[in-house]
Specification:
Blueprint lengths: L1 E4 L10 H10 L4 E4 L6 H17 L3 E5 L2 H7 L3 E5 H7 L8 E6 L2 H9 L4 E4 L15 H11 L4 E4 L7 H6 L4 E4 L1 H4 L4 H13 L2
Parallel strand pairs: 1-2, 1-8, 2-3, 3-4, 4-5, 5-6, 6-7, 7-8
Helix pairs in contact: 1-2
Length: 200
């Protein structure tokens, strides 16, 4: 499974929604709208538009962080940080899928206990999203995958060269940000990524 994560600041297309459309047309399994520096009102507008685009291309859509917006859009999915899970777990019951970002084995185990349905673990490899932060490596990813019963997705430095190693560690899929957001032709990048993952 391939999950695309948005970041309008690095969009190859001048029009952010145009880039989302191109990514959706490349058929990822899901798109997470992750625009943390906007107000909930602005995010709500983007969420409605992205949900419409995803629906047209038969791609799952997931809201990031904003619990009320997730309920309003009605996708039944939300992606949050581990800290947000601790703080807001009682408000998340309306979501069938609760994707939680974790950065350690202990967080992964606790997130599952608190009701997470999916985990996003990273950063596995070095990534431009966290400059200077070394990758945690596939060894720790493998340990996380073997310690929980819910699906784990690798994030951080994922591309056609690293995806196979992540999959071999036991994760159910990968999350990518810059690979598709900066691509003028997301479809070709998606094909390369899937080809790499299918080798496992």
């Amino acid at each position: 499974m391939i999950v695309a994560i948005t970041d309008r600041k690095i969009s190859a297309a001048h029009d952010f929604l145009e880039q989302v459309e191109a990514i959706a047309a490349a058929s990822p399994d899901m798109i997470i709208l992750r625009e943390k520096d906007v107000s909930e009102t602005e995010y709500g507008y983007l969420a409605v538009e992205c949900a419409r685009i995803c629906c047209y291309h038969n791609v799952k859509f997931c809201v990031n962080s904003f619990i009320k917006t997730a309920a309003a859009v009605g996708s039944g999915r939300i992606q949050i940080s581990f800290g947000s899970l601790l703080a807001d777990k009682d408000e998340l019951t309306g979501n069938e899928e609760i994707w939680v970002s974790v950065h350690s084995l202990s967080e992964a185990v606790e997130a599952e206990r608190l009701g997470a349905t999916h985990l996003i673990y990273g950063n596995v490899f070095e990534t431009s999203c966290k400059p200077g932060a070394p990758g945690r490596g596939v060894g720790e990813l493998e340990e996380v995958c073997g310690s929980v019963r819910i699906p784990v997705y690798a994030v951080g430095g994922i591309d056609a060269d690293t995806a196979a190693a992540a999959m071999k560690a036991g994760c159910k899929g990968v999350c990518v940000r810059s690979l598709l957001m900066t691509a003028k032709d997301p479809s070709s990048k998606m094909k390369e990524l899937r080809k790499s993952m299918e080798k496992v």
